[in-house]
Design goal:
By secondary structure, this protein is α+β, with helices and mostly antiparallel strands. It is built from 17 helices and 36 strands. α8 packs across α9 and α9 runs parallel beside α14. The longest helix is centred in the last third of the chain and has 26 residues. The N and C termini lie far apart (about 135 Å).
């Protein structure tokens, strides 16, 4: 009897498996919080029971857990070798940190991002586990770490793990998770054990371990991925990375590169993950794992030897569906058809929903997968409340309060020498706060403004204007931080219990506003910061962008897909490309060149001011080689020894003083910008990104090159990481895999590229910024203008005045 029942169950399971294998591709849009769930084309097992959404609790915080919960609800404390206990065998684990490391620093820190869940995962019973380690000086009785899901606290943990990582698990209330985007927030409130100084607040930190931070879903249904949710819900691995493994048996055949790069960009835009890489191959499917999605692309005849259980539909029509690999049991995105035109058509069914016309202006930069909410794009005079930027009203009892938010500016932003933005601050402080305390504004990590607190009786600030120059703004994403340094008499005494922080001394209200004035808008060439910020100018091209690839091998194609995928996220849509074999066919259009330095056309290197001699001389230093002497640095050292180092050091100190106090540099003390110098990459560098003009000056040519295809792939995988991508700027950017350092060469001379309709107001702003940058030209024009007024006045008085 048992044998008959088991056989029946096996037959039923095989039938369901066959239906799931040929499930059509579902490209329904991402579901926002609170939106109804759209019906899915692919069959899915119904959830066990529908649970009503629990209402959010009042402002009462959850109980503080002093130790991880015993029994099955919490793992044992982790060790260095085992940072977190493994989940139950039937559970599905989803890592949630989209970073290689996450440090919550200072007395107050808050980080938010979204995690995309499938309907099966949202309906399953779930728990949240995180592993952390804090500094030894953190006081556990006054420090706590709170976890929020969809703005609802699910648990709070005393910060008390200085000796090693500890794992804590909180059960997620039923009905709290939802299909689609779910907001995850870590909030740290930390206090020092013994010290009450401002300096001591920089010693406070709590590091969250990506490998020990995950959601666990009960049941095997949570592992089912049978629609477009599999792409959006790909997530990250234990190191915070996302990987697409694309197997193409006919990888090197002509005509396959263009659709494959379009597929890579579509997958990038759908997932929108910050640290994603692409790996192309021609062999068997790689091993599955968290944060990975395997994609099998080719005609039915090409794929049958690699995937024997190919659906019969692939023999007659374009097919894009999720199937199960019979060898590993993992889901695989299958894209096939009877011919490559049919395969391209199947790719379009996946990518088409992400297409957007460059003429349609977008309102936000998509950042919620690593920093929520999405950053609004500001194009002109705008006031925006901090509540819309993710800042919450906060009462603070410590000494150094800091909060951050993001905004975006367009690629043609040109106001780095004259513009002023304002923070209209709504805040309050008690009479305990002493004069000498101050509020600072930071832009992209650089201090932009400081306002001193002088009152001794406390005060309420209502839209206090704090002006800050816009010199630190850049095209694309910009991070702005508000930091309050608060000193009191109690801190000077630092009596026992002073760090408990029972009474708030400062409050920041989310009614505060950020005001961005009108700024000059004109494109600049070269400008790698615009490429990294919004994929300018390629994201605005109406025609396909010429793409030169020296050879179609797995390393080079993987590097190109990783780069174009990151650019597609910044542009907000896939960038259409067409492959070219020679720069002579490009003409005066915008173009991208990817390949090893030895195969790069000499014309391209000349246009980007890269030395053509580097094709033979640029070789990275290997570990077995002796250290290579940097000729430029050695020359400077000997020059200082021979020519008098004391005088040179004094001149350098004077230049720094002028730059620090008056914003005057050698480049600003010239009538017109000088010519770009020829750049020779150092042997310590393993990747180079450069931009210049086309031969006729009408297009932007961007070169991405390395000594070898392997260096190219590894370098782009590192540079496109979220921490490094924002550092790309200037005329040339280099990366060293040995040191992990990104270096830039600033732009010396650039050309203006009109980007908006002609207007007197915009041209006035452009002239104001250019003259503010070139001081001597401004002074010369001012003298000429005064002389003209003098001559005109003298002539007028000579004609109209009375003479004897």
């Amino acid at each position: 009897m048992r044998t008959v029942v088991a056989a029946s169950l096996l037959l039923l399971h095989a039938s369901a498996f066959a239906q799931a294998q040929t499930a059509p591709f579902d490209m329904s849009g991402e579901r926002l919080p609170g939106a109804p769930i759209a019906p899915r084309l692919a069959p899915a097992a119904p959830p066990a029971a529908s649970v009503p959404v629990a209402p959010a609790p009042a402002a009462v915080p959850p109980p503080i857990a002093t130790e991880p919960q015993p029994a099955a609800s919490a793992p044992q404390p982790a060790t260095a070798a085992n940072p977190a206990s493994p989940p139950r065998s039937a559970d599905v684990r989803r890592y949630v940190l989209p970073f290689s490391k996450l440090a919550l620093a200072g007395e107050y820190d808050r980080r938010s991002w979204s995690v995309y869940l499938t309907p099966e995962q949202a309906a399953a019973k779930a728990s949240f586990t995180f592993a952390y380690q804090n500094s030894i000086v953190a006081a556990p009785e006054a420090s706590a770490l709170t976890i929020y899901l969809n703005n609802r606290p699910i648990g709070q943990q005393r910060i008390s793990s200085p000796d090693g990582p500890s794992a804590v698990t909180f059960e997620i209330p039923a009905g709290l998770l939802q299909p689609g985007a779910n907001l995850v927030t870590f909030e740290a409130d930390q206090r020092h054990r013994t010290d009450c100084s401002i300096q001591s607040t920089y010693e406070l930190w709590s590091n969250i371990d990506p490998a020990g931070t995950y959601m666990s879903f009960a049941g095997r249904d949570a592992a089912e991925l049978s629609s477009a949710d599999a792409i959006r819900a790909i997530g990250v691995d234990s190191a915070g990375k996302t990987e697409f493994d694309i197997v193409v048996p006919a990888l090197e055949q002509p005509g396959t590169t263009k659709p494959l790069l379009r597929l890579a960009q579509g997958l990038s835009v759908l997932s929108s993950m910050p640290n994603q890489v692409f790996a192309f191959g021609t062999g068997s499917l790689p091993a599955a794992g968290p944060g990975k999605l395997s994609v099998l692309v080719g005609t039915a005849a090409e794929l049958r030897p690699f995937f024997p259980s190919l659906p019969p539909a692939a023999e007659s029509a374009a097919l894009a569906a999720f199937v199960t690999d019979p060898r590993s049991g993992s889901p695989v995105l299958l894209i096939s058809g009877p011919s490559w035109p049919a395969v391209s058509s199947a790719i379009d069914t996946i990518v088409a929903p992400t297409d957007r016309s460059p003429d349609i202006r977008r309102d936000v930069l998509t950042t919620e997968r690593w920093s929520a909410p999405n950053a609004p794009l500001i194009f002109s005079d705008t006031n925006i409340a901090l509540s819309q930027l993710g800042v919450k009203t906060t009462e603070f009892s410590g000494r150094r309060f800091r909060t951050e938010f993001n905004i975006g500016v367009p690629a043609d932003f040109y106001a780095n020498a004259y513009g002023e933005a304002k923070v209209l601050l709504d805040a309050a402080y008690t009479d305990n706060v002493l004069p000498g305390s101050h509020i600072d504004i930071y832009v992209n990590g650089n201090i932009a403004s400081t306002v001193a607190i002088t009152a001794t009786s406390g005060g309420i600030l209502r839209h206090l204007p704090i002006r800050m120059t816009m010199r630190h703004f850049k095209p694309g994403l910009n991070s702005i931080a508000i930091e309050a340094i608060l000193m009191t008499k109690d801190d000077a005494a630092c009596t026992p219990g002073a760090n408990a922080g029972a009474n708030p001394r400062f409050a920041l209200f989310d009614t505060s506003e950020l005001h961005i004035p009108d700024f000059a808008r004109v494109g600049q060439r070269p400008n790698l910061a615009a490429v990294a910020g919004t994929a300018y100018p390629y994201g605005r091209d109406l025609e396909p962008v010429p793409l030169f690839i020296d050879r179609v091998d797995p390393d080079t194609l993987s590097a190109a897909a990783t780069l174009l995928g990151q650019m597609a996220i910044m542009a907000g849509h896939p960038i259409p490309v067409e492959t070219v074999a020679s720069p002579n066919t490009i003409g005066d259009r915008d173009a991208i060149f990817i390949g090893s330095i030895s195969q790069m056309p000499a014309t391209v290197l000349t246009q980007t001011n890269v030395s053509t001699a580097s094709q033979a001389s640029w070789r990275p230093v290997v570990d077995t080689q002796t250290a290579v002497v940097d000729t430029g640095a050695a020359f400077e050292q000997w020059n200082s020894k021979v020519s008098g180092g004391v005088l040179r050091s004094r001149i350098t100190a004077f230049r720094e003083w002028l730059w620090r106090n008056f914003d005057i540099s050698r480049s600003s003390l010239q009538f017109v910008p000088g010519a770009e110098e020829i750049f020779t990459p150092s042997n310590a560098a393993t990747l180079l990104v450069a931009q210049g003009s086309s031969p006729a000056g009408g297009g932007s040519w961007t070169v991405v090159t390395a000594p070898s295809a392997k260096d190219l792939r590894e370098g782009l995988e590192a540079v496109t990481e979220q921490l490094n991508w924002s550092q790309i700027s200037g005329h040339i950017t280099t990366y060293s895999s040995k040191t992990g350092k990104v270096d830039t060469v600033p732009v010396t001379r650039f050309d203006f590229v009109p980007s908006t309709p002609w207007s007197i107001g915009n041209y006035r702003l452009i002239a104001a910024n250019w003259l503010s940058t070139n001081i001597l030209s401004y002074a010369f024009l001012l003298v000429v203008f005064v002389l003209l007024i003098g001559f005109a006045t003298s002539s007028m008085l000579r004609r109209l005045g009375r003479s004897k």
